[in-house]
Amino acid sequence: MATLLHIDSSLNPGTTSKSRTVAMRFCDAWREQHPDGEVIHRDLAADPLPHLDQHAFSAAFVDAEARTPEQATAMARRVRLIEELERADAVLLAAPMYNFTIPSTLKAWIDHVLMVGRTTGDTSSVKGLPVTVIASRGGSYAPGTPREAYEYVQNYLRSILNEYMGLELDFIVPELTAAHSNPDMAELIPLAEKSWARALDDAVLKGKETARRVTAA
Fold first, then answer.
1. Is 100 annotated as a binding residue?
2. Does 97 show up as a binding residue in the annotation?
3. Is 165 annotated as belonging to a binding site?
4. Which residues are bridge partners to 5 per DSSP?
5. What is the pLDDT of residues 183-201, one digit of tens each?
6. Of 94, 105, 88, nearest to 46 (Cα)?
């Protein structure tokens, strides 16, 4: 039975969140193709993880029998999160852009699961794991746009998840999502609607494709 790890990080609930809405379209397509598969949903807004502290960081470099109680507790949390990632056959990551980058709750999750000697480098235990990222944003930061240099979502995730941890990334990018609510962006509404429709379609296609891929593996 294949397992999909679905991680949400939007502060907005339900259909008020663009990233959650597109992610659910992906999940529905996954379940349609793979009804016997398991979906593990981790909502980092509803149940945020503590940020990495001295105990959680240092515990990875101390033998188990030498860890303090605080280090042992923090390490156990990290190991649970890493094992959850390791046993997934695919990952769905909803990563809206907040202040030009990912939500701090998602950054905390990454800090916990990134462990040198286990989930990094050529021997990464999650190397090759397919990850679909829903990278929603209110404006556009695509190449050639005025705010291209402010894109710290896709660029960051490629660096840390793909290049450092070896995960295989695929992005779905609903952009200009603020066009309907921002009068200054009114002329961009047609482009926003096209981007939204494309994101929903891509989510269905990618959800089905990912389900077929992991079932055949």
1. yes
2. yes
3. no
4. 40, 91
5. 999 999 999 999 999 999 9
6. 105
